[in-house]
Each structure stands twice: as structure tokens, then as C-alpha cells.
Write a structure and sequence with these properties.
Helices cover 34% and strands 24% of the residues. It is built from 9 helices and 10 strands.
Length: 238
């Protein structure tokens, strides 16, 4: 319904939010709430491994923040641009492309889907380097290791809950973009029985349901268009 208030529970950012823009264009009233702050980790270790591109068979990113950890170090060694690079979703793909990389996996909506894509590619002789957050899900590394694929992980960021200032308007919708957003949501005065809940994908939806949040909409793709379509479909069915 046009005019519905939507809380977007997001990681802090200085950029405009494409999800808010898409919802606003469709007649919703979105509010971006930075409920998670980013803490960068293992910066010097990251610098060291990136200087040894010959030791790895490719890169894996499952979030734009992992790409940002690399970008913060300055220019990426040219040799990485000749390596396979795997990502989850279009936003992570766009961030990797901005580094001069040619990522695969833009259409992958989860770590599980990306793992299937990687397993269909030629098997690397050297380990893939998985740059991830401290709260990363187990699906991707577990699936790859079960198939005997060499993998080295490095945590390059963490997220911590923060309590943003809430709008005066109570929400009709609350949108979660990661399972870690749940921890932050516990600190907010949101009456879950009075709102409809949307999740950016099946992994986040499963985490919400496990904690008793009724999920009304799950985006089929982790994009503004996917989220908007899921919310509109849920509204039409209600």
C-alpha cells in the first residue's frame, strides 16, 4: 500500500541507499536505520596475503564490506585481475568491478548458490582466498571443503549493534538484510506483532523464523527490485 512506513535495518554507510530509493519511487516511506557499525579486522594480515597472489587460486567475497576492506588498502596488485573472483549478488559484484576485477556470481543469492557455481568451475590447484566477516555463515566454506576444494579464510571485518534514532512514524514494514540485524533489532522498540517483516534472502528469513519473527516477504534476489517485488506480492496476498 502506498505510503506505508518501512524501516530498513542496515549497516552504517555514507552512501545513498538503493533499496530506500526503489521503495520511495514505489510510494513507500522508507527510513534507513544504521543498526550495525563496521569494525575492520586483520588489516595488516590482509595486506600481506594480497601481496602473495601467486599463492592463491582466486578470491571469494560474499558482501560489499569485504570488498571495501580491500579497497581501503589502496591499489590491488595487478595479478589479482587475472584470477577467478566469486561474489554473492549484484552489489558485491559492482564493488568488485570497481576494483578492476571481473567477478562471477552476480546472480547468486546466497553462499550455497555461490558454492555450487564455484564447484562447477575448473578446480583450482591452489586455495581460494575467502575474505569474510566475523559472523559469516557456514554454508559456503562447508560445501567447498566437503568437496575437497582448498580454501583459506580471513576475517576482514566485524559488525556491532548500534541503536539509531528512530523516526516519529511507527513502521508498517521492517526489512532485515542479515541475521546479525536480529541482535540490533532486540534493542529497538518494535512491536513484531504489529509489523510485517521482510528478509533480503532465505538465510536471513530462516534466522528470523528461528527467533519467532513472522516473515511476510522474502526477496528472490538480494536487490532493490527483488525486495520491492516480494513486499508488493505479500501485500497483494493479504
Amino acid at each position: 500500500m502506498a505510503g506505508e512506513v518501512v524501516y530498513l535495518l542496515r549497516v552504517e554507510t555514507t552512501e545513498s541507499d538503493p533499496f530506500a530509493e526503489a521503495l520511495r519511487a514505489a510510494g513507500y516511506r522508507p527510513f534507513v536505520l544504521p543498526v550495525l557499525s563496521v569494525v575492520w579486522c586483520n588489516t595488516e594480515q590482509l595486506r600481506a596475503v594480497l601481496a602473495r597472489s601467486e599463492a592463491y587460486g582466486g578470491l571469494i567475497f560474499t558482501s560489499p564490506r569485504a570488498v571495501e576492506a580491500v579497497r581501503r588498502l589502496g591499489s590491488l596488485p595487478e595479478a589479482w585481475r587475472r584470477q577467478p573472483v566469486y561474489v554473492v549478488g549484484p552489489r558485491t559484484a559492482a564493488a568488485a568491478q570497481a576494483l578492476g576485477l571481473q567477478p562471477r556470481g552476480e546472480a547468486a543469492g546466497s553462499g550455497r548458490e555461490l558454492a555450487r557455481l564455484i564447484l562447477q568451475a575448473p578446480r583450482p590447484e591452489r586455495p581460494l582466498l575467502f575474505l569474510c566477516g566475523a559472523r559469516r555463515r557456514d554454508e559456503l566454506p562447508t560445501l567447498l571443503r566437503e568437496e575437497g576444494l582448498p580454501l583459506e579464510e580471513l576475517v576482514v571485518y566485524d559488525t556491532r549493534p548500534s541503536v539509531p534514532e528512530l523516526p516519529a512514524e511507527a513502521p508498517d514494514w521492517v526489512v532485515f538484510f542479515s541475521p546479525s540485524g536480529l541482535e540490533a533489532a532486540r534493542r529497538l522498540p518494535i512491536a513484531r506483532e504489529r509489523v510485517r517483516v521482510a528478509a533480503i534472502g532465505p538465510t536471513t528469513a530462516a534466522a528470523l523464523q528461528q527467533e519467532g519473527w513472522p516473515v511476510a516477504a522474502v526477496a528472490r534476489t538480494p536487490t532493490p527490485e527483488g525486495l520491492l517485488a516480494a513486499m508488493q506480492e505479500a501485500t497483494n496476498l493479504s
